[in-house]
Amino acid sequence: MNRQEARLGVDIGGTFTDVVLETGTESFSTKVLTTYAAPEQAILDGMQAVCAKAGITPRDITQIIHGTTLATNALIERRGAKTALITTEGFRDVIEMRTESRFEQYDLNLQLPEPLLPRQRRYTVPGRIDATGAELVPLTAADIEPVVEAIAMAGYESVAIGLLHSYLNPAHERLVRDVLAARLPDVMISLSHEVSPQMREYERFNTVVANAYIKPLMKSYLGRLEGRLRETGVDCAIFLMHSGGGIISIENAADFPVRLVESGPAGGAVFAAHIAARYGLDKVLSFDMGGTTAKICLIQNQTPKTSRVFEVARSYRFKKGSGMPISIPVIDMVEIGAGGGSLAHVDTLRQIRVGPESAGSEPGPACYGRGGTRPAVTDADLVLGKLDGKNFAGGSITLDEDAARAAVKSTLGDPLELDAQTAAFGLAEVVDENMANAARVHAVENGEDLADYTMIAFGGAAPLHAARLCEKLGVTRLLVPPGAGVGSAIGFLRAPFSFEATRSVYMTLAGFDAPAVTTLLDELRAEATAFVRTCAPEAEIVAEYKVYMRYKGQGWEIPISLTPEQAQNPDPAVFEERFNADYSRLFGRPVAGMDIEITVWSVNATTPPQPVARVAQNGGEHTATGHGHRQFFDAALGAQVDATEYHRKALDTGATLQGPATITEDETTIIVPSSRRAIRQPDGCIDITVKGTTL
Fold it and tell me: What's the rounded Cα separation, in Å, for the pair 638 and 328?
């Protein structure tokens, strides 16, 4: 075998670790339970399994691309390192004061999320940089040394340094770093102008604190992973998926672990965008449901929507402002605690509630037989007949239906005086409605009508629930691609090497300085390109330019894309034209007579995307042959139905089947409800549409 053809994608989720090995035109995959105490062990187990399937050894692997939820989980669960913040005098409480906005205006008992660091772990130094980058108050080493001594006495593992306006002039931050490093060489240091060189001190300080908080944990994990892989004979390069949908080196990931916070979900969005390109779809709703969370993303023109800020660990479901803001380039999506392992209970109002608490893999849902006694979504799916307990995860796990029924009945059924099946139906409907509502809110926030969209579903649990979500959202078409159960891991193998460099430099169009703009964009391009070169030294690299603009006096900006020609020959008239066009598209019309200002400049250096061949879509040529029958509960009908069973591997191109039906494969099961039909497309996608519609 040609060694250059073996690439491994690994996604560590809250419940399962997905592993995909591609060797030329062949693909091998597996799912193993995530090992919390040593996450790298699940990677090694999965790698050995797929290598055995492919008939190769770990030594034959030439590239590993890894994504993980470890950074996210560490922030959500508040189990990071003992961390301190050094900031400017007078700004000690910025991360606690937040923006002073109320995300739930009429809640008199509103509870704001606690900052990552309590007040006693936040220190200040004199010195001041103004909004132009000029030094107002000097800072000396003597000013810094008392703070450094206090940090030494307290025994901190990691320190975040976030000073006012450091994104314009980082001299003071670098001085603090130098004094700190000289006194405490073993303490890890994060600088805000390196982690997030953007305006708005609350978001920037919070981001650098988050980076420092998880840096020791992630650096230790990545070091152990690399060491364990080398012990097994792996000698290839190891890369990490970052939140913006690209790939960075393991060294850069260890220095900036906050960029990994959404790495797993980002891989899923890349995977969905790849499928959208194959089918020529310009409006796609990506639906990724795993064991712990569900992720929903809008993909337009085969490109996932991106953002500069996102929130982790929202304390109020769906409420912007209730979470922890992280200011880094990221694929924009909504993520909720709704997965196969999400636990259910009855609240004081006798309503079924599901998530965000998850059973994970330890102990897992009750049906796993690993000690879990509370009902999870997977237990409900099993009770409702959506899962084959004897062939779950390719037969590697046998599900205990009796244990699932007992958990559902005791926790939900008995308090509500319902039988096990009705209680399981209630659980499933609640979690499906939670996900549907999240999709509606996300669409409204982006001014989109989901009726115009095609859903692409992947993740171990998504094919079980996707068709029901389509019924709730009015989406007429659903695609379930091959490898859907390990979609994020496949997405890692489709992602380009990329890095986005950003910087806040304020400029109005009335005071537009073309030479300064050219210099700034050249510097950003060089910075982003240097990061990519650490991963792909010889590859072609293209630059994508974006500026964030607003009318003078507005609070928030909109992103404006520029062509390389427009960026290299900056013209304020062109900038104004592009801004007015995008502003009108979003808000109906431009505002006459107002000056326009630019606040953030961005350059994304990326390797060119992989060429994608279009699929010659099949309208259905013949009726598929079933392999048996099973009863499952059809939520739209509110009744048990007799469904035909099909094996995905046995379906050939053009095979058509009518719901109710189940399509089984090793990593997941596709539920086709009574209202839908399915066609197997030439690339292996299962194309599910409303009965009576045509492609």
Answer: 44
Task: Dig out the tokens for 686 from the structure.
Answer: 């299962």
- Are 45 and 146 in a shared domain? no
Task: Yes or no: say if 378 and 345 are a contact pair by the CB < 8 Å rule.
Answer: no
Q: What is the pLDDT of residues 512-565, one digit of tens each?
A: 999 999 999 999 999 999 988 888 888 889 999 999 999 998 888 899 999 999
In a domain, residue 473? The reply is no
Give the residue from 45, 38, 118, 48 showing the smallest Cα distance to 70. 38
Which CATH number do you get for residue 185? 3.40.50
Q: Is the pLDDT of residue 582 over 70?
A: yes
**DSSP one-letter string for 380-444:** HHHHTT-S-TTSBGGGTB---HHHHHHHHIIIIIHHHT--HHHHHHHHHHHHHHHHHHHHHHHHH
Q: Can you give the pLDDT at residue 499?
A: 87
Mean pLDDT of 373-396: 83
pLDDT reported for residue 282: 92
Taking a C-beta distance cutoff of 8 angstroms, is the pair 292, 269 a contact? no
Residue 55 shares a structural domain with residue 161:
no
pLDDT of 169 strictly over 90: yes
96 and 37 within one domain: no
In this structure, the answer to whether residues 90 and 48 fall within a common structural domain is no
Structural domain including 179 reads 80-215
Extract the tokens encoding 393. Answer: 């995860």
What total number of domains does the chain contain? 4
**Do 510 and 595 share a domain, yes or no?**
yes
Which letter does DSSP use for residue 592 in this model? T
* 433: Cα within 13 Å, side-chain hemisphere: 11
Neighbours of 571 (CB within 10 A): 12
Parallel, antiparallel, or unpaired for β 622-623 and 655-658? parallel
146 and 49 in a single domain? The answer is no
DSSP states of 242-299: -TTS-EEEHHHHHH-GGGGTTHHHHHHHHHHHHHHHHHT-SEEEEEEE-SS-EEEEEE
CA distances from 9 to 6, 64, 383, 409 (A): 10, 6, 33, 39
Of 319, 330, 311, the closest CA to residue 76 belongs to: 311
Say if residue 399 is in the same domain as residue 521.
no
Strand partners, 240: 66, 248
